[in-house]
Sequence to fold (362 residues):
Amino acid sequence: MGGEEFYIVGGGPAGAGAAVAASRAGFRPVVYEAHEKLAAKPCGRGIPVVGDLDFIDIPREAILNKIKSAVMYVNGEFLFELRNVFEGYIVDKGMMLEAIITSSGGEVRYRSRFDVNRGVVRKPGEGYIKISKGIFAGGHMYYSGERIGAIQWILESRRYSDSDTLEIYFDTELLGYYYVFPHGEGEVEVGVGGFEDFGRLRARLERFLRSREDLRDARRLRIEGARIAVGGLDLGYAGGLVKAGEAAGFVLPLTGEGIRPSMISGYIAARAIAENRDPLKALSESWVARAVAIQRRILEYAKSLSPGERAWLLKSLTPRAHAEIALGRMNYRVLAVELARSRGVAHLAARLLKYLSSLGRA
Ligand SMILES: Cc1cc2nc3c(=O)[nH]c(=O)nc-3n(C[C@H](O)[C@H](O)[C@H](O)COP(=O)(O)OP(=O)(O)OC[C@H]3O[C@@H](n4cnc5c(N)ncnc54)[C@H](O)[C@@H]3O)c2cc1C
Fold:
């Protein structure tokens, strides 16, 4: 495939989204990836399918499991089940990213680390190449805002072979949550993310597993962890390239969901560059930037509450309000109706609605 080269650093979701946009604008995406494979960083690999990723074809063979339901608990107490309200996928992230990049006519140059101080990329055997225009999508290490830890066990458990249900357990002492993601074919991922150091998160995860009769004896395959950027947007440049994805804070701060927001931000930034528009303006005006900003506000509010108040807040919101906020859709009208229905959250509802209306309508 011909076309002028379009440079992207990082072959994660943001880099893949950027490759799609560059290719659609007639460029040939070249992705410089520090690792020897894609998706080396730990990740839950869950993607809600809510219509805003329609610019991407998620390849069927990369879908490990289709999720149809989510069950929520607060401090061990069942809250609700959302069934057939949204769909989601658990994906083989490496396979998905590679397919997206290659089907956009892009090329991944592995073991090619970009030096952000000098704006050069080192390709083994070829020396240094200067890159002055493109997308930087190097992930959370380059993010300067607040980050939390997340740690997860991948377990083998036949009991979860046919499950299409995500489980979310809020622990209001922690300000974070546990998750159980069934991967299909007998693998299940059990993790915890929140405002604590890795040692404590690990101890919590072990306690959580011991408390689960169905998981206690599951075969443990591996444990992994990484940080997640939850501090809101950090727009700007790295080594002269426009930051996108988690490096720029495109993670929903309340849920830690980063694949979808990162992909979308990569797409928006690359498209703006390809069309000679201001990429920072395009990013800051996007709906996904607004979703990140609103979730960050809600997170700040949640931080200011005691564990008991947090439990009360979580239990008061309607299931639809939970979904609307968690998925980052933040439709003003839907939220206004749902928050009015929620029991006893008038204070939050008033603050949130005031903020939403100051940002303009969804
Ligand atoms: C335990 C855990 C579970 C998670 N679960 C989920 C989930 O279920 N769903 C979800 O949506 N999100 C989840 N996330 C968040 C999600 O993984 C990230 O937000 C998302 O992958 C960010 O995409 P990105 O492309 O910006 O960065 P990354 O996915 O981090 O990709 C960055 C890429 O850039 C490469 N790179 C870095 N520096 C350089 C350099 N200097 N030169 C060249 N290449 C470089 C890296 O090797 C990497 O391949 C989870 C995170 C953690 C830690």
In short: Residues 5-45+92-144+230-285 form a domain with the FAD/NAD(P)-binding domain fold (CATH 3.50.50.60). The radius of gyration is 20 Å. The chain has three domains: 5-45+92-144+230-285, 147-229, 290-359. The CA atoms of residues 81 and 332 lie 23 Å apart.
